[in-house]
Design a protein that fits this description.
The protein has helices spanning about 15, 25-30, 85-90, and strands at about 5, 35-40, 45-50, 60-70, 70-80. The chain is an alpha+beta fold.
Length: about 90
């Protein structure tokens, strides 16, 4: 699947930004091959991602794939920096 870009608007950006993660950091994580798994949300098909920014900060994301205009876009739903315990668990420490 070829992703054409990100789907940002006034509906998803405020929720993503409220934990201090910038758009740039969210995009870095999603473009840098994060660990991706299904999200258990029953209302719509979402995915979870765990990855690092270029500065090395660990980020947890929930996003979905949006299909429009013949292309696929990544639509972040929420984002936050991970806690030390989560990072240690993820990295198997």
């Amino acid at each position: 699947m070829r992703v054409l870009g990100f789907d940002w608007d006034s509906g998803n950006w405020p929720k993503c930004g409220k934990h201090g993660v910038s758009r740039r950091e969210i995009e870095e994580v999603l473009l840098n091959t994060p660990a991706v798994m299904p999200d258990p949300n029953p209302a719509e098909p979402r995915l979870r991602a765990i990855g690092k920014t270029l500065a090395g900060r660990h980020v947890f994301l929930v996003f979905m794939l949006r299909h429009r205009d013949g292309g696929t876009f990544l639509r972040p739903i929420s984002a936050r920096y991970m806690h030390r315990k989560e990072i240690d668990h993820h990295e198997g420490r």
